[in-house]
Amino acid sequence: RVPGGIASAALEVLGSASASGGILPRMTEASSPAPEGAHAYNHQVRSEEIDELGHVNNLHYIAWMQAAAADHSSAVGWPWSRYEAIGGAWVVRSHAIEYLRPAFAGDEIVVRTWVVEMGKVQSRRRYAIVREGTVLARGETNWVFISRRTNTLDRVPAELRAAFPVLVHP
């Protein structure tokens, strides 16, 4: 948690690498962590999420991203029961995450998430994991829509596509 420390300098170098071809777009000091209209998922870090180094284990960030996506889906009228009714589901094709700062037990974090692309069979979603205005991590998930009956790619139903506004954010 020391601004300007060794880790901060290393993160600046990593941020520069991201700007030159990384998966996630570079965020500047002036940019907001998420666009207006992004969904907010709140979470308090639990002691069982802490690893041997005394901070949250990296796998929990991905779990929070998935929980935020599910919460967002429910918030726009698509809880799991509705997916069951149509026989479809979103599954992860890939995750990308950039860890910027650690989280600790008891921290109140907010996972902001938004859809940046909605295609015929896939969707791309971004995340900003924030503690008191400080971005801890940024991520992106590529989701594909499948038929639960055949476990093959399926078209995203029009009513599902319409439920998620596509938000542009650098």
Provide a quick synopsis of the model.
This protein is α+β, with helices and mostly antiparallel strands. It has helices at 6-19, 58-75, 80-86, 158-163; strands at residues 39-44, 88-99, 108-118, 122-131, 134-147, 152-153.
Give a description of the structure.
- There is one protein chain.
- This protein has four helices and six strands, in the order H-E-H-H-E-E-E-E-E-H.
- With 170 residues, it is of the alpha+beta class.
- A hairpin with a 4-residue loop joins strand 5 and strand 6.
- The protein is 26% helix and 32% strand.
- The longest helix is centred in the middle third of the chain and has 18 residues.
- The two termini are 26 Å apart.
- Strands 1, 2, 3, 4, 5 and 6 form a six-stranded antiparallel sheet that branches.
As a percent range, the share of strand residues is: 25-35%
Sum up the overall morphology in one term: globular
Number of helices in the DSSP assignment? 4
Q: pLDDT under 50 segments (min length 5)?
A: 1-21
Number of strands: 6
What structural category characterises the helix and strand content?
Answer: alpha+beta
Helix content: 25-40%
Order of helices and strands: HEHHEEEEEH
Radius of gyration, Cα only, in angstroms?
A: 17 Å
What would the average pLDDT be, to the nearest integer? Answer: 87
Largest sheet: 6 strands, antiparallel
Task: Please report the distance between the alpha carbons of the first and last residues.
Answer: 26 Å
